[in-house]
Design goal:
CATH architecture of the largest domain: 3-Layer(aba) Sandwich
CATH superfamily of the largest domain: Nucleotide-binding domain of ferredoxin-NADP reductase (FNR) module
Helix content: 10-25%
Oligomer: single chain
Structural class: alpha/beta
CATH class of the largest domain: Alpha Beta
Distance between the termini: 23 Å
Largest sheet: 6 strands, parallel
Strand order of the largest sheet: 12-11-10-9-13-14
Radius of gyration: 21 Å
Length: 347
């Protein structure tokens, strides 16, 4: 079956890798286009879910887009090698120009269109969290030249900065784009040394009035930035963050109650049943049973693993993307839910 994605015209076309750029020793950027060159509609900051065949198993994973919808002929993602990363490591090892991937349409409410914003945007990122921030920066520079952009990126060293040359180019080409690199191992005189602690945050952003903050990176980084802003009296309605990493607190909340218990899990539509441990996410149990559920972000962000609990009790740590009506009808995000009784689910 040919991979398909919906383009801006509403038609479908294969999504094909056109280029691969080695960013760092453990990360690469992949450039995709629709085979018929039709533009692909999305919002700056959104992610895309790819379906990848890994050793005969179809796995879904979400990756933030770093390209801008103002130039819709291309989509770009950056993939970083991670310990145990089935899909990410497979793409880095095998994906080359000319290969096609199945994908769902871009999605996600971490974007510059749906989130409230002002004329002064602060983009704070760490590691691979740079990708949606790059998308937002590129979009604003193309479409809103009056917007002031502070781009503050944290990494271990200069060699670990994704899109380093592109950041320098944007800084040199646009007076309204100000780049600050915060590196544990500074590579040049303009780099700030160390981690983004509160004193440096205050120094880089002495005035938060009228700002909008978009933040993406590891959960501890985002938690710290959120605290820095909140302690300064920042209007948190203009603080937006996203992460595809499940928090340790969420995992602890999922497993603290009923540890060591196991329950029956039934999916009558598919005439399947099995067991689910209290320490196991509903998504993991459904995947183990071979049921057709998509687990893309696996952290309660993208909503791809939505399913309905027909009967039984679950503990849920995220209901992002679910409407109040869906929650009242029993819908949960399987990746963020654990069983507290026997369950019957509908996919």
């Amino acid at each position: 079956m040919t991979p398909q994605i919906q383009t801006a015209s509403g038609a479908t076309a294969p999504l094909v890798c056109r280029d691969r750029v080695e960013e760092t020793a453990d990360a690469a950027t992949f450039v995709f286009t629709a085979a018929d060159a039709a533009p692909i509609a999305y919002k700056a900051g959104q992610f895309i879910v790819f379906c990848v065949d890994v050793d005969g198993q179809k796995l879904h994973r979400a990756y933030s887009l770093s390209s801008t919808p103002s130039r819709p002929e291309n989509l770009t993602i950056t993939v970083k090698r991670v310990p145990g990363g089935q899909v990410s490591n497979h793409l880095l090892d095998h994906l080359r120009p000319g290969h096609a991937l199945a994908a769902l349409a871009p999605a996600g409410d971490f974007n510059v269109v749906d989130r409230p914003s002002t004329g002064h945007v602060v983009l704070l990122s760490a590691g691979c969290g740079i990708t949606p921030c790059l998308s937002i920066a590129r979009w604003l520079l193309d479409t809103s030249p009056a917007t002031s952009i502070d781009f503050i990126h944290s990494a271990r060293s200069g060699d670990d900065v994704i899109a380093a040359a592109e950041l320098d180019r944007l800084h040199a080409a646009h007076a309204n784009f100000r780049l600050t690199r915060v590196l544990e191992q500074p590579a040049r005189a303009s780099d700030r040394a160390g981690l983004l602690a509160r004193p440096l945050f205050d120094q880089l952003l002495p005035d938060l009035h009228g700002r909008t903050i978009f933040c993406c990176g590891p959960q501890p980084y985002m938690d710290a930035v959120r605290a820095f802003a909140d302690e300064r009296g920042f209007d948190m309605g203009y603080f937006h963050c996203e992460s595809f990493a499940a928090t340790s607190a969420a995992r602890a909340a999922q497993t603290s109650a009923g540890a060591g218990q196991s329950y029956t899990l039934s999916a009558p539509t598919f005439a399947k049943s099995g067991e689910i441990a209290s320490t196991q996410s509903l998504l993991e149990a459904l995947e183990s049973a071979g049921l057709p559920i998509i687990g893309a972000c696996r952290s309660g962000v993208c909503g791809s693993c939505k399913c309905r609990v027909v009967s039984g009790e679950v503990t849920t740590t995220s209901s992002a993307t679910l409407s109040g009506e869906e929650i009242d009808s029993g819908y949960v995000l399987a990746c963020s839910s654990t069983a507290r009784s026997d369950l019957v689910v509908d996919l």
